Structures are given as C-alpha cells and as structure tokens.
Amino acid sequence: MALQRLRTETRYSEIVIHNGTVYLAGQLADDYNADASEQTRQTLANIDLMLSEAGTDKSRILSVTIYLKDMARDYASLNQVWDAWVAPGTAPARAAVEAKMYRPDVLVEMSVIAALP
User: Which InterPro entries does the entry link to (predicted)?
Assistant: First the structure.
C-alpha cells in the first residue's frame, strides 16, 4: 500500500496512512479558552473528523496517547467525556501523561493510531 499524507503542512501531516494504519498528528480543541471538559469534547470531535477523512472511525482506534496540562486537575473531567465518547467494547490501548503544552491555554492534546476497515 502506498504511503498517503493528508492535510500536509510545512512541519507535519495531520493524517498519514500506511499499510492499513492511520496515524493522526496531535489533535487539539478549537477553543483554547474552554475548560478541560470542553477541550476534550472538541478534540474528540476533531479526531472523529480526521478519522472519517482517512476512511475509518473511532471503533477502529488501536492506540491513543493523551497529553494533559494538569493531570491532577483535569484527569477526571477528561475521563468523563472520554467514557461517553468510546463505544462499549471498543476501548483502545491508551496512555495519559502530564505535559507542558505549546501554549499555556491548551489543556488537552491527543495522538491517535487507528486501523482502516
């Protein structure tokens, strides 16, 4: 299978597809003024959009790495939104880490690997 890069910019591609696997660049919310719950909802909506563009969906996610600005403050609210988003029986492998973000108002970022149908 050929390597595909979608939404390519100077430094990265939003979507890379190779050998039946979809790799998403770190996904963010659209509104950085929102709280962690809303940033999580927006980030997951952007993941849905990117996966659809790549030809797959959230039920085929293999792995997610979640970066939180403040784990102690935001982990519970992230999980509440996450649990409502993930369909039963389709939970991917997942890691969540606290990270210094590229902007002080970014609270959540997620990197995703998914399979094509």
Answer: RutC-like_sf (IPR035959), YjgF/YER057c/UK114 (IPR006175), YoaB-like (IPR035709)
